[in-house]
Amino acid sequence: MKRKFIAVLIVISMVVISITSYASIQLQTVNPENGVFQSINGANISSGTYIIPGLENKVTVDIDTSGMAHIYAGNFHDLFYAQGYYTASMRLFQMELQSSIAAGNVSQFVGQAGVASDLSLRTVGLNTDASILVAYMEKNYPQYYSYLQDYASGVNAYINQTGGNSHLGFKLLGISPFKWTVFDSLVWQEYMAWSLATGACTVLQSDIFYNAMGFQNYSTIYPYYPYFTQNITMVPGSGTVNGYNLTDQGINPSYFWKLNFFQEWATGISNRTLHSLQPLLERAYNNIKDPFALPGSHDFGSSIGSNSWIITSNYSSDGVPMMANDPHLPLLAPSLWLPLQLDAPGINVTGWGLAGLPGILIGHTKTTSFGLTTPEGNSANEYVEILRGNDYLYNGKYYPMAQQNITLAGEHFTLYSTNNGPLIGRSGNFGISLNWDARTPSLDAIAEIKLDEATNYSQMLSALKFWGPAPPQNFALVSLHHAGYITAGGYPLINETLPDGKNVSVVGSVSLLNGSMSKYEPKGFVPFNYLPQDVNPPRGYMFAPNQPTVGENYPYPFVGSYWTTGGRAETIYHFLKEHDKMTIKDMMDLQSNVTDYWAEQFTPLLMKAISGMGNMNYSERQAYALLSSWNFTYWQDMKAPVVYYYFTAALYNLSFYRIYSEHDLRPYEPNPYINSAIYLAENDPNSFWLNGNFTQLARQSFALAVGFMDYHLGNVSNWEWGNIHRLEICSLTELPQLSIGPIPIWGGRHTVSVGYTPRVLEYPIPYVLNGSSLRTIARPGTGTFYGVFPGGPSENILSYWFDNQLPAWLNHEYYPMQGLPTEVRIVYEP
Amino acid sequence: MNLKLTALAVISILSAILIAFLTGDAILAIIPGVFLFMMKFRYSIMLGFAESFLSFMAIYLEYPLKDVSSLSSIIGGIIGLPSILIILIYPLLAGIITAFSALLFSGVYELIKTGKSSQNPT
What we know:
The complex is a heterodimer. Chain A is of the alpha+beta class.
């Protein structure tokens, strides 16, 4: 009996041991020795000396009290090697996840859940374009290729030494880091370019709208130049650049900009054919929308923007030029940016680099500074392809499409491409191909390092000849004595024959183009000399917060474009106009400005419309009083912004969104320009878009909005902007536990210090996910440089350095970018 | 006899500590249980569990406790478990493995012992 009992115990023991052993394998993540807890070791950065094979000489890395690392090396090889090593020590998981997303390999991290994203980005062709770029750089620019290789070697030296064990992300996923290559850097460059590409989806959106509502409605809601923006272009004046304009070509701008560029003469596609392609347009749109995109990125509702302005020496209080820049990007934890100084013989640059790429993209030297914003002209266009089986028609003959077989998480896919680019959608004998300028190898990495080396204005301009083609960017450039802008990069030109018989090269298209004939193919890019640009403008300032870059007389008209509303541009313009001796403090004040220019224009019209409402209830009277005394700023404790937000959201719901829904446009169309609503309210109050009666619409909207606020927010005392408008700084993993926030946040969609939210009648409203990813102000002439960003150098959520600059960023404060005490000194020795 | 048991217990404890700190692998927690084969079932289970559970818990002393607490809250939030369980679960598994390993080998030892005694009626 006893033996039987013991035998049973033995069996039970074996079963329990087996189960618990299996469980322990499954729960390695929480293993205190080898699991996630190891990442605690990476939380602290301490001074010390590390032996790093591959270096030629000693490199010193001083991390100052703001978290900026100052890397001092003896030559370029060591400098970029050390940048790679240091960046990996801070951001290895971020770098590898980003690269995997960009390369269409994220399914290797997350399995089936990543297939849709991978397929989207493989379809666009980032992986292929990056591979071509790697080979092109290695062959044609071996010196700059070697810098990328040095950076990759530095990353790998870190991986070899540590195994990436202290990075939480790897532990959570139960994977080890892969070896970094030049491809990984450049595919991330491609992704950033893609996230800033205009035209890829906007052409599809335009056609979907045009097919449903016609040109009259399209040009009313999305005019080529948004209403009221003609006088606030980046390049002052009518559009003449280096003495050349549209009029010189015998074309009258007022004639040109009334033309319907959806017509067959402009696209080679009849309106009937275009209409029949509506389902294909929708399919293609969905195919290239990346479901795993970085939070907020790739939102084609123009939620990505940026601010920058320059002040010339005669407009500056100290008689030397100045610059301010804050690029609006997804706010991520960790940030896309890493603050660095790179110092070696021949280079001494300070600013922010992208984690994963060598060099500094936004920053300054002792004698220069440079920043960038996104212009919105088309760098991508789409073509209709006529297909027969796997062949495409071109100039009367059929050619086989190139095919690429890929496997993602065990599933097999075939991707096709024509002479115009990858096929992003197909229906029967029609397809749509994407012609994005990144098909031409984009040498941004070279331009960036050359910019970092430049010591005067002309050297910066020369560096930017290497920029692009993708993505075109507005570069704000300041040296000791000069200040100006150039929109560098490659804008594909389409040759158009206008209805009056004149020929002109235009930037992009607003609609699909006929891919079966050579006539509509891109014919080169806008020549560098005629890219939008100016230097030392007599009025003393320029600004480029994503508004139209040039006026209507520009020699290469931006037909394909999707400018932002220009609200931030208006605020900047009026501020600069009124401050003729700008100081650093003025620059900071403008960067922290939370006034909504469009609210200032719209509110009086709304107030006038509702002023005659009889029998307002208590809440409506309160809301009315709040709007009446509003100064159009958005601070967290203010109530009027909530009233204005819900008022306009209700107005959109009852008019624009209702009409969109009736035409099945809602999933595809972004917010209409607020300018369009204001323009119509002012000039066509009986418009179909305003339900035939603006006054009545405004009154209905006001009642709806106040009722909504009463229901969801309760008493007026709860109507504070910070109660509904909150920031979330998302983790790349999209796990809220690894994210920061929600934090009540200032600003609105159109304020200079921005807090993007879509205009929706919802509670709670979506979090702010995009914003000023960094702020910098530079005055090289006096050696004055300030900066701040919403994060820190480390990706370790337990580290002080994870978000050490966030409080200053939230308070619109800055760190001096030089002269701060050293907190940690790390020495890398060969 | 007591000396022998004590010596084996000490070896078992030391092996539990070494396994926890050198490998951190709960499956290897079977090994300390082997050395407890001569103990009575109840004591071998108790000692086996305690030595591995505590050894694996002691690993946390390598880290600042504040960070352990923060990280367990984060991971608990992701996995959907209470943070205290995140801290305890792996040491618990190791403890259970050693406890049942001790039980297993005690049982085998007991079987051998009773087998021998039944073959020898004197």
